[in-house]
Amino acid sequence: MKNQSFVTEFVFLGISQNSDVQKIAFVIFLFAYIATICGNLLIVAAIISNPALMGSPMYFFLVFLSFLDACFTSVIAPKMIIDCLYEKKTISYGGCMIQIFTQHLFSGAEVIVLTSMAYDRYVAICKPLHYTSIMNPRLCGILVAVAWAGGFLHSIIQLVFTLQLPFCGPNVIDHFTCDLYPLLELACTDTYAFGLMIVANSGFFCILIFFMLLVSYSVILFSLRNHSAEGQRKALSTCGSHIAVVVLFFVPSIFEYARPPVSFSFDKIVEIFSTILSPLLNPLIYAFRNKEVKNAIKKLWHIKYATEDLLSRSG
After folding, report:
1. Would you state the pLDDT for residue 1?
2. Is the pLDDT at 142 greater than 80, yes or no?
């Protein structure tokens, strides 16, 4: 069979084929998506408007992480929400490939950002005297560039292999988004090698980085035994937030890609968690557990109302 795709569009079965469930899902996910975007962009605006925080590598990376979360959820959530209103849910072949590329671009970049944040905490806690010389603006800029380059390389590998798949038969995907494993089930060719590629490029990569992050945070927590009680409290609070975000990101990713290329009944639940809930929880974790972020948000809020009051008086 020639390596050629005859399918011009794919049909999603969506979250559920029950119209009542879809209406409920529309309301819930719409509010969750709005809260996700507002929460992440609020953190971005609050930190950027505060020069003291923006000059700190930890908050510099937090801005980038919040931006990536907002972009990642925007790749999938809007169409998923709109599709809840329609009986037939379709996406063009090109749109499907774009969705695969962009979601792996942002998720791949986020992996490197989370790793950079772990390294930043390691230097701050284990090598405090050398922190400013090591975590300088130049290194932070390089790490962000590496994140974009790594995300692009990861996503382009996924896209190139996916474009080799011929789709000449069924075009119905039992999902609400274009993902690699559901597409493998539709390809009219032997996909065993493609499945191994996904496990190697995504699954093994996630497991390796997740294990390295756990080891690094274990080293950090072990080194805290020599710190004061106040220093331990602050470090544990910061590291606790990072560890929670790392777990929320990597556990669903490992489940999705570090397994044989087969579909499970709860794949949609895991995808909803990684697409909607995880980006929603990240700003909540940082906003409520970090005093500096909360103060920056309050300051931004006061500036907003002061500006509105000044404009109303001048008007």
Report:
1. 41
2. yes
Q: Look at 177 and 267; give whichever has higher pLDDT.
A: 177
Beta bridge partners of 239: none
One-letter amino acid for residue 172 of the chain: V
State the chain's maximal CA–CA distance in angstroms.
74
- Which residues make beta-bridge pairs with 9? 92
For the chain, what is the radius of gyration of the CA atoms?
Answer: 22
Quote the pTM value. 0.87
What pairs with residue 91 in β-bridges?
10
What's CA 267's distance to the chain center, in Å?
Answer: 17
DSSP 153-205: HHHHHHHHHHHT----S--EESSSS--HHHHHHH-SS--HHHHHHHIIIIIHH
Rounded CA-CA distance 246/111 in Å is: 9
Q: Is 82 helix (H, G, I), strand (E, B) or coil?
A: helix
Query: What one-character-per-residue DSSP string does 88-153 give?
Result: SEEEEHHHHHHHHHHHHHHHHHHHHHHHHHHHHHHHHHH-GGGHHHHS-HHHHHHHHHHHHHHHHH
> Which residue carries 């979250």 as its tokens?
15
- Tens-place pLDDT, residues 260-298: 766 666 788 888 888 888 898 888 887 766 778 878 877
Q: 282 or 141, which is more confident?
A: 141
Within 13 Å, how many C-alpha atoms sit on residue 247's CB side?
Answer: 10
Q: Kind and range of the H or E element at 11?
A: strand 9-12
